Amino acid sequence: MADTKIRIAIIGGGLTGATLANALFHVSGLDVHVYESAPTFSERGASVALSSNALHALKRVIPASTELLARAGAVPINSSRAILGSGPQAGTLIVEMGGGVESGVGVHRAALLRELLAPLPPSLLHANKKLTSLTQDNVGDGEVEVSFEDGTVKRFDAVIGADGIFSSVRNYVLGDEAARHAPSPAGWWDCRVLVPFEKAKATIGEQYFDMPRQNAWMGDGGFILHDVLDGGKTVQCAICCVEKEPPKERKRPLTLEMLNEALSGWLDGPIAKAAIELMVDQPNLHGYSQWEQKSTPTYANGRVCIVGDAAHATTPWQGAGAGQAFEDAVILGHLMSNLSSDPSDSTRPVDKIAAAFQAFDAVRRPRCQRVIDSSRDTGVLTCGQDPDAGLNPDKMRAAFGGRWTFIFGLDLDEYKQDAMGKMHEFLGR
Length: 429
Ligand SMILES: Cc1cc2nc3c(=O)[nH]c(=O)nc-3n(C[C@H](O)[C@H](O)[C@H](O)COP(=O)(O)OP(=O)(O)OC[C@H]3O[C@@H](n4cnc5c(N)ncnc54)[C@H](O)[C@@H]3O)c2cc1C
What we know:
Layout lengths: L6 E5 L3 H13 L3 E5 L11 E4 L1 H10 L3 H7 L3 E3 L1 E6 L8 E5 L6 E5 H9 L7 E2 L4 E5 L8 E5 L4 E4 L1 E4 L6 H7 L9 E13 H8 L8 E7 L2 E8 L4 E9 L8 E3 L2 H7 L9 H9 L5 E7 L7 E2 L2 E3 L2 H4 L8 H17 L15 H30 L10 H8 L4 H4 L3 H15 L3
Parallel strand pairs: 1-2, 1-12, 2-8, 5-14, 12-20
Antiparallel strand pairs: 3-7, 4-7, 5-6, 9-10, 10-11, 13-16, 13-18, 14-15, 15-16, 17-18, 19-20
The chain binds flavin-adenine dinucleotide.
């Protein structure tokens, strides 16, 4: 176990911050505090699909993760079907995944966050604490000084930014490069609704609810998804569409006419009218542009680093964002557990933090960037925009084959060893 005196501030209490706090507190034995700008630790009302790599990573952080997910009402996704949703071949099955190594779960984000926070002592969780600035310059003993909107100033041995896609810590880490690598619109917008299971079944059709599965409809300029969560009580339905022009703002009001127009090529098919009916039944219907971190030159700057969406926000097309955040927690937790000096080592554990963060950057950035790029390409294919595949089911099927293998097939033990090897390199050993 690492020196328990190492003090870490995690900025941001979303799924990444909460998972990382568990890793650093329970696995690495560090003195961790989480600072969240919102008045309470909370999540958007939507689901998140956790694939097998995400589940494996979560288990490394929280050994009782199966029970944790059960308390959050997670529903196993025994099958994930991609079906053509528009055009003359609408209804054609393109691919079915699930079972074995590909099994995942669907879970309500707010319930997952609640359960991820539960194993942490409340005294470590600080809401209403918005980071306004941080510095490593002229702070004693290599510490990092953080300032909050309420005027408080604190010092830590290291700071980790889990403050989401519009991260302030990212701006600090990237410095002069921040503007050039700012998050940008990815080319799609989406809207989501949670409805009672019986209502979804009656509207969409009983035949799609014969078992816990995710149905992903692909077609002309859009995508429709429905999956079950909350232990089978709720269904999430999502509609995603290609942006016709660059968005002026991330969030915009939506109407029935706008949805009908966006999915005009789908309306004779088996799913679009039902999905639109569910969507417009909710008050304050809004669409959100999808944004991503297209490139990032580094995740680390001295004793400050970034994780989760702050480092590698991706589009949702491969359902991989939260899984990448859990992998971050495993790798950073492992590196930070191995800072303790042995008796023959005169370097203090705190003086190895920068090397740990460099090692984290070296192993995580290539993989996360690959996920970002692959996810964007998957969106292009899904919405029938791939110039070769178009909406040809055979070509789409061929193009989808193997697309998830590199995400699911990670050997976490090997990966942890790679990270340790890098840390030793950076320490000059
Ligand atoms: C539409 C959509 C669908 C998705 N679907 C999936 C999926 O199916 N599967 C999957 O694996 N992933 C999915 N993802 C990705 C996944 O949700 C994210 O990768 C994951 O939630 C990581 O979030 P985070 O904690 O890094 O960031 P966030 O959830 O954005 O949390 C950041 C936190 O930091 C706080 N904060 C911000 N600034 C400050 C500050 N200055 N001071 C203090 N606190 C601050 C915020 O209030 C927030 O609570 C999806 C994402 C989107 C947008």
